[in-house]
Design a protein that fits this description.
By secondary structure, the chain is an alpha+beta fold. 49% of the residues lie in helices and 15% in strands. A hairpin with a 2-residue loop joins strand 2 (140-144) and strand 3 (147-158). The relative contact order is 0.11. The model has no long low-confidence stretch (mean pLDDT 97). It binds flavin-adenine dinucleotide. Flavin-adenine dinucleotide binds next to strand 1, strand 3 and helix 11. Residues 231-379 form the Acyl-CoA dehydrogenase/oxidase C-terminal domain. Its cofactor is FAD.
């Protein structure tokens, strides 16, 4: 059943986007996984066709598209492969900060290029010593005349190699009594003196996604690159992390649906003991259980997307969706690989890649333990 928020124009858009991906992404994805990066050229093609940040205001080059378009884009990208998540991160996680908290000048300078694919963005919160405990970051930004001098290190940054524009979470007031009150967001541009990138990190999965370390050694960032107000960074993050978690839930739900389809097709094809594997009752029950969990996830997710589109507060529910759907997708991945037998462990079968790609969804955008902490807090326990 189609979600209530999907209308005729979204169907048309999905068809067009799918055709684009069939031509420009599916044939090359395996190669990108081997190379460990998605070429910039692909980003530019996405931009040329209007598939980057279509929600941005028309005056900056967008289409004012509603969030259902973002859902379609993220679902279709995930169907190609989980490594496409960096594009969803740019579209629906990073650029929204610029659009919401940027000054008019910042928006005019950067948004059109984010839409055309000339600028690829990233957000750098995590440090080697601080991930879940965001208030514990140690990267500092000290005001010196017309600049901030930034010192510190970030790690695990999605789009870290490609990124031209990075929202860096810094402490502008390291002495703030409540640690989160000293946090600000600075926009660091590619050629900033004192900013360097480390190696492209080798990961268990998401092989085509470029993830990197970033280093700041007396990096000179113009004061006008402050995003929003000084000291408000933590609040901005808390606001925008909701959509980030929703995007991760959408990707994980889509991955579960893809894995189910692959597995169903496989067991209906494969023969053992003179029957199709799908004819064994134990296999049927496992598929029935998977289908049930997937349906539960989809129903909850679609309701949540609607609430988000209405601008309602989704903090508790999105935390529930993020942990439950990503754990469900992990269960589906494990079952799917098992039901593929030895072939499931072979790289030429898509399920192998899906199996190693999915666990990170329970880790990034706030770990699933952090999601439960948020839910528990809002239960006023
Ligand atoms: C592929 C990938 C891409 C990423 N992309 C980005 C990015 O673009 N930008 C960015 O800023 N970060 C990114 N991250 C970082 C990611 O958000 C962090 O890894 C994550 O938030 C967890 O932080 P950590 O790794 O420091 O783990 P830790 O915080 O050290 O946690 C270790 C374990 O302890 C648990 N834990 C911590 N505190 C508690 C508690 N109070 N109670 C119970 N359990 C607890 C955690 O849930 C986890 O299981 C990425 C990570 C990966 C792997």
């Amino acid at each position: 059943m189609t979600a209530r928020y999907i209308r005729e124009e979204h169907h048309i858009f999905r068809d067009a986007f799918r055709k684009f991906l069939e031509k420009e992404a599916y044939p090359y994805f395996h190669e990108w996984e081997k190379q460990g990066i998605i070429p910039r050229e692909f980003w530019r093609k996405m931009g040329e066709q209007g598939f980057l940040c279509p929600w941005v205001d028309e005056q900056y080059g967008g289409f004012n598209a509603d969030f259902a378009y973002s859902v379609v884009i993220n679902e279709e990208l995930e169907k190609v492969g989980s490594s496409m998540i960096g594009i969803g991160l740019h579209n629906d996680i990073v650029v929204p900060y610029l659009s919401e908290y940027g000054t008019e000048e910042q928006k005019r300078k950067w948004l059109p290029k984010c839409i055309s694919g000339e600028i690829i963005t990233a957000i750098a919160m995590t440090e080697p010593g601080a991930g879940s405990d965001l208030a514990g970051i140690t990267t500092t930004a000290v005001r010196d005349g017309e600049h901030y001098i930034v010192n510190g290190q970030k790690t695990f940054i999605t789009n870290g190699i490609h990124a031209d524009l990075i929202i860096v979470v810094c402490k502008t007031d390291p002495k703030a009594v409540q640690a989160h009150k000293g946090i600000s967001l600075l926009i660091v541009e590619r050629d900033t003196p004192g900013f360097t990138r480390g190696r492209k990190l080798e990961k268990v999965g998401l092989h085509a996604q470029d993830t990197a370390e970033l280093f700041f050694t007396d990096a000179k960032v113009p004061a006008e690159n402050l995003l929003g107000e000084e000291g408000k960074g933590f609040y901005y993050l808390m606001e925008k992390l909701q959509q980030e978690r929703l995007i991760v839930a959408i990707a994980a739900q889509t991955a579960a649906e893809v894995m189910f389809r692959l597995t169903k097709d496989y067991v209906k094809e494969r023969t053992a003991f003179g029957k199709k594997v799908s004819q064994f009752q134990t296999v049927q029950f496992r598929l029935a259980e998977m289908a049930t969990e997937i349906e539960l996830g989809r129903t909850f997710l679609d309701d949540l997307i609607e609430l988000h589109m209405k601008g309602e507060n989704i903090v508790t529910k999105v935390s529930m969706a993020k942990w439950w759907i990503t754990e469900m997708a992990k269960r589906v991945a494990a079952e799917s690989m098992q039901l593929h037998g030895g072939y499931g462990y072979m790289e030429e079968y898509e399920i192998a890649r899906r199996y190693r790609d999915i666990p990170v969804s329970a880790i990034y955008a706030g770990t699933n333990e952090v999601m439960k902490m948020i839910i528990a807090k809002n239960l006023e326990l």
